[in-house]
Amino acid sequence: MTFKLILLVGRKPNLTHTQFRNHYETIYIPLLQRLLGDDFPRCYTCTYIGDRVCGGSTECAHDSVSELVFDDAAHFARFWHAYAESGQESNQIAACEEGFVNLLNFAYYVVENAVEAVPLED
């Protein structure tokens, strides 16, 4: 059974949405792929939140929602160890995050039993 992690990530206040997205896609994710190797998630999807959110507000604490899919809990455990507890690699990751992530607007959740709805046929 797959194991999923959802990340809600906010950008540093001094960055534009474009700068945040560029750093995320061209620096951060390639760094994770290089450092984590086979422990990188099986599937990684990032969705960026637009300038306007529900209710007409222009303020949102998060700039992206990412879904990380792992083969199983053991795969996630290897990822987490490499990401957060592996010394030099985790220090490089933390230093990179400091450049673009607002840690006050960062959250992660393990999700279970995802349900997908599709339109009903006539």
Automatic annotation (TrEMBL):
Superkingdom per UniProt: Eukaryota
InterPro entries for this protein: Dimeric_a/b-barrel (IPR011008), EthD_dom (IPR009799)
Pfam families for the chain: EthD
Residue ranges of domain EthD in the record: 12-86
Single GO MF descriptor: oxidoreductase activity
Family according to the record: Belongs to the tpcK family.
Protein name: EthD domain-containing protein
Organism annotation: Aspergillus sclerotialis
